[in-house]
Structure formats: structure tokens, C-alpha cells
Amino acid sequence: METINTKEQKLTETQEDYLEAILELLETKREVRNMDLADNFGVKRATVTRALQLLTRKGLIVHRMNGNITLTDTGHEIAADIRERHVLFSHFFKDILSLDETEASDTACKIEHSISGTALHNFREFIKKVDNCGCFIAGSPREDKTETDEKTGE
Questions:
Q1: Into which CATH architecture does domain 12-71 fall?
Q2: Which ranges in 29-154 belong to alpha helices (H)?
Q3: How far apart are alpha carbons 77 and 101 in whole angstroms?
Q4: Among 5, 49, 51, 109, fewest CB within 10 Å belongs to which?
Q5: For position 71, what pLDDT does the model report?
Q6: How sure is the predictor about 145, in pLDDT bands with cuts at 50, 70 and 90?
């Protein structure tokens, strides 16, 4: 069996979405099949089959003869990383910028595919600092408690 180094392979946004969806479905269902993904994405099963063939060739999923779809270790690692990025950006847009949950998730989905490396690392560190300091609550900077209110003097 050929060893595939997916670190050198570029995945499309759609391929990353499929990996993330398979991971999420595997966590809620015992088995994942073409129809589950077709329903999830609102596409035909033939479209799903083509996407799964590409992911199989890249060594990221196993599509068994009985129809079950599983992630390889590498596929699972990539899917978990994509989901972690999605959660990170959703948190930023929802909890810090006060976007509604749908808009926050949709925006996170767009960004999660295009950021990596130093920018992603620095963004993670920024979010940790913001979360730890409590500087933002529901999108608005917290008032500095050391300043006195001009009207009350408190």
C-alpha cells in the first residue's frame, strides 16, 4: 500500500467540508453513508460519490463495499483540525463580534479554509488573550473598572 503524505497535498474547500461533515456525522451516527452526506450538503449522491473517490485516492477516507464511510487516521487528524478552526472562528464572530449564530458559522466556514501557519497561530493566541482577560463581552469592550463615572463619581 502506498504511503500518502497529505501535508504536501492541497485540499479544496469542498474536500475539507466533506472531511469535517464525515467527522461530525460519525460522532452522532453509528454509520455514515453517501445518502447522509448528500442530505447534509443538499446534493445528489453521484456528486458525493465523486468527492469520496477523490478523498479515497488521497488516503483520507475508507469507503467500504457495504457503503460505510470512515476516516483514516490522517483524514481524522485533518478533519479535527478543520473543525477546531471552525469552532475558533465561530466563537470570535459570535461571542466577540456579536454576530448571530448562523452568520458566525457561515463566516467561520469561509475563513477556516484559507488561514493557516503563522496567521492561524497568532489568531489562536489572540483569542486566548481576549478570553483570559475578559476584555470583550458579547461584542462590546468591557468598561474599564478603574475609571470613575463622571456623573456619579464612583
A1: Orthogonal Bundle (1.10)
A2: 34-41, 45-57, 73-91, 101-112, 117-133
A3: 26
A4: 5
A5: 97
A6: very low
